[in-house]
Amino acid sequence: MARFLVFGAGMGENTGKTANHILICFHDFNRGGTERIAIGMAKRWVELGRRVTILCGARQGGLEDTVDPRVTVLELSPPIPRSPISRLQLGPAMAKMLAELAPDVIFLPGNFHFPLIPALGKARGRAALVAKISNPAVPQGLVALPVRWLLRRFARHLDGFAAMNRGLEAEIRAIAPDTHVTTLYDPVYLTDAPPAPRAETAVKEILWAGRFEPQKDAPLALRTIAELNRLMPARLTMLGEGYLRPKMEALAAKMGLGDQVSFIGHVPSIDPYLAQADALLVSSVFEGGPAVAVEALAHGVPVVSTPCSHFLRDIMTIPEAGQITASSTAKDLAQALAQVCTAPRPSPAALRPLIAHLAPEPCADAYLAWFDAMAAKRG
């Protein structure tokens, strides 16, 4: 069922202004979820007659050829590629272009781009400035206090936050109670007719997909498959790229997992791999809304995950969907995988109702309605 959002009372006086020109600001076309989702929604918005511009620091990363030709793409001159300080440079450089571009709404599609907020907020003129919370806003540990302080300062420049799930909405409300926050789900783009699953075999096939970066905790996935092989024969297929991949390949070899782990790299479509999988493993430290888990459920593949995401708790509401472990340990994950892999395989028809509200058009349309409300409030 689509989730309908009504914007009106409490949103400010409606001036009749709409988000006719939407400006999406991001660093580059990195193959991450936030960029891919923004590009997909931009296609829907231009189909509905809106003007959409993507302003990027560098036109590189792998997704640049997926942009709808009706969407304008502008690269900073000179370009600003990723570096340890690049986001501090990105905001002021983009701010200089706002007067000429004259957007109605400026959209930052994820936490990674929060450092752009102060510079864009000061230069936006009458444009509404909004940002999506794509991951838990505050990390654990010693950095939590300064991050909360920074978020409160950033929030002063914003007209609103869009949270990817109700848990993230509650988190940001506690940090910035005076800033408008709403839950808007990311669309997920699914194959209409997923490939038929493979026949049952003695060796269980576990799939992992993501960037080889600390957030995804690939070492935990390797420890988990080692632990699972103490319970049953199993193989782990790892999809994705990232700077930690060589270290993970070396770690797998050191652990003696050469026959149990395959590193495939980036793939154009995950569907053939899901068709061969008995379960999807999510080993992340934190996640906002892992789209790969939704794709797995759409294929009838149960998910086993660390307690990393409010979003997964929102959608994994029946036992057939898999398990979210109480702790992020290899032993707990392996036991959960063993239980899931020995249970009867669910059908896509049983799991797709859990994710029906994530259909692309209703999600993109809900974002557009929110943009219109934010633009009208700015006047």
UniProtKB/TrEMBL annotation:
Keywords: Transferase. GO terms for molecular function: glycosyltransferase activity. CDD domains: GT4_GT28_WabH-like. It comes from the Bacteria. The keyword Protease does not apply. Residues 32-180 form the Glycosyltransferase subfamily 4-like N-terminal domain. It holds the Pfam family Glyco_trans_4_4. This is Glycosyltransferase.
